[in-house]
Structures are given as C-alpha cells and as structure tokens.
C-alpha cells in the first residue's frame, strides 16, 4: 500500500512509518517543512491527494509543552493544528478521483469525562464537557467523509509510552534520581498504551477491511492508577518512587485547565480494539516499561 501520513515526522509517526515500511508499504509524510519523502500541507491543498491507498493524520501541536503558557493564543494553536490538517486531508480525500481505501485519525481519550468510578468503552458518551473533550468532538467531526467510498477509523489514544519521546521522556530523569512519584493524589486513572501497540493498531486499521469506526487506543490492562504507574516505573528502574508531585505545582506549571490532563484521568477499555482481533505486544505495564527503559 502507499500510505500518506500527516504529522508523520513526530513521536508516533516515526514508529508507525518504521512498522509500515517493515511490512512492505510505501510512506509519504505530510509536514509543515519540505523534505525528501514528504509533501507540505500547502502542496496537498493546491495539488490534491497524491496517489495513495490509505491516509492517516497524526499532526497536532504538543498540548503538554511546559514552555508554553495555557493562554488563548496557545489554545487556538492546539485546536487549529488538529482541525486544519484534518480538514485538508478530508477535503483532499473527498475530491480525489481515486479515493483511498482507508482514512484513519488519531484523537484522544480526553473525549471521556475524567472519573474515579466510571468505565468507558468506545460506545460511551462524552465529547462535550471541557476544552479537551470538545476538541476531540470537533477533530473527529472534521475527519468525517460524505459517502462511504473510503473506510473510516478513529483511534482514541491514551498516553503513549515509548523510547525517545512522549510523556515518559519528561519523567525518566526525576525517577532515575529517585525523585519520582505519583502526580497529585495518584488516585486518578492513567490510560496508557505502548507506542509499538499504537503503531500496530493503526497498521491494522489501515490494512484490514473489517475495521471501522472508533477504537480505543489503550492497553487492555490500562485501568492503572497514576500511583500504580509511578510505583511500576520506580520498580523497573530500581528506584524509590514515593515523592508526590503536588497538584498546586502541576497547576502552576501547566495552568489549572490544562493540569486536568495530568491530575484527572479516565478508566478506558479497548473493547472494540480487542474485538477487531488486534493482539497486543505489551498488554501489561511492567513489560511495557521494561522495554522502554532497557
Ligand atoms: N503522544 C501521546 O501521548 C498522545 C496521546 C493521545 C493522543 N495523541 C495524538 O496523537 C497524534 C500524534 O502524537 P505525537 O506524540 O506523535 O505528536 P508530536 O510528535 O508532538 O507531533 C506530531 C507532528 O505534528 C506536527 N505538528 C506539530 N505542531 C504542529 C502545528 N502547530 N501545526 C501543524 N502540525 C504540527 C509536527 O510535524 P511537522 O513538524 O513535520 O509539521 C509533528 O511531528 C497527535 O495528534 C496527538 O494529539 C498523542
């Protein structure tokens, strides 16, 4: 297959590109910067969809960049970087003479309302209670195609754990120094997925004709709390992990509304993902963390 990957230069895109190429597919990236093996968003807008059999969008401004203040301008960038790129791909697919077989979007589990008790699968309600859930609703709506010439899949991802990027890259140093611990109360759920499994689920979504609709991109055992996550990370590093990161510190760094992403969480189960036949390489947290810190 020839696969077009929007935002494919990033953390998830690098892992997905590697896996797709290993499976014999050709990959073209869509990026803000031109380069070999890439087209830009401007080229996609002006020239239309290049010949391809499937497309996926991973583009989006990093929400948890601690160097950016959570003000209106940054919120707009977070929103527009996702909506505009998704709209450009949706329009290009709609106008294509030869529409691709599959169109896959990665969004997030922020669609579901944080709770200490509720359990969410792909059919659970959500998407309408705060900035992030509304963002996911608009983002998924921007990907909707008229008609059904192209199979559509949305993967709502949890926190992606992998080497060389993502949330864990900010945690490793304090944890290695024995200064790690739970964030806030630690009671909040921490829905996670190993990057190899997210790439695997995306590849299945691109390749398999029977996969359609929303899939939760979380590990089957991702009903972990933040405190359990901290304990496991400490254990695989052989370091104590008892020093909590107090909520007011998190709120001071990230802003109160954005800090919700770290201080609250959702218990998410991948019911449809398992029913799709996907076999996880890292269903358990310990093994996932061991692979990452090895
Ligand atoms: N990582 C996670 O834990 C996680 C969890 C849930 C959902 N997701 C979602 O999964 C997708 C991929 O995540 P990731 O961790 O791979 O993301 P990432 O590495 O932070 O970014 C992916 C790509 O997005 C493009 N991008 C960044 N800012 C942009 C902007 N302002 N406008 C247009 N494009 C921009 C960049 O490509 P160029 O520089 O080449 O343009 C970048 O390589 C994102 O949409 C993210 O929201 C990630």
Could you characterize the architecture of this molecule?
This protein is of the alpha/beta class. It has one domain (2-166, 192-220, 268-281): Rossmann fold (3-Layer(aba) Sandwich). It has helices at 11-22, 41-47, 72-95, 131-142, 166-176, 195-207, 226-237, 247-254, 256-263, 271-275, 285-293, and strands at 2-6, 26-31, 38-40, 54-57, 102-108, 119-120, 151-157, 159-161, 192-194, 213-217, 267-268. The strands form 3 sheets. The protein has a 7-stranded parallel sheet with strand order 3-2-1-4-5-7-10, with helices on both faces. Strands 6-11 form a two-stranded parallel ribbon. Strand 1 (2-6), helix 1 (11-22) and strand 2 (26-31) form a beta-alpha-beta unit. Helix 1 (11-22) packs across helix 6 and helix 3 packs parallel to helix 4. The longest helix is centred in the N-terminal third of the chain and has 24 residues, at 72-95. The radius of gyration is 19 Å and the shape is globular. The chain binds NADP nicotinamide-adenine-dinucleotide phosphate. NADP nicotinamide-adenine-dinucleotide phosphate binds at residues 7, 9-13, 31-33, 58-62, 77, 81-82, 85, 106, 108, 157, 159-160, 166-167.
Q: What is Rg?
A: 19 Å
- Which overall shape is indicated by the principal axes computed on the Cα atoms? globular
Number of domains as seen in the coordinates: 1
Work out the number of β strands. Answer: 11
CATH class: Alpha Beta
**Low-confidence parts, pLDDT < 50 over ≥5 residues?**
none
Ligands bound to this protein structure: NADP nicotinamide-adenine-dinucleotide phosphate
Q: Return the CATH topology.
A: Rossmann fold
Order of secondary-structure elements: EHEEHEHEEHEEHEHEHHHEHH
Question: Distance between termini?
Answer: 33 Å
| CATH-defined architecture | 3-Layer(aba) Sandwich
Report the total helices.
11
Overall residue-averaged pLDDT value: 97
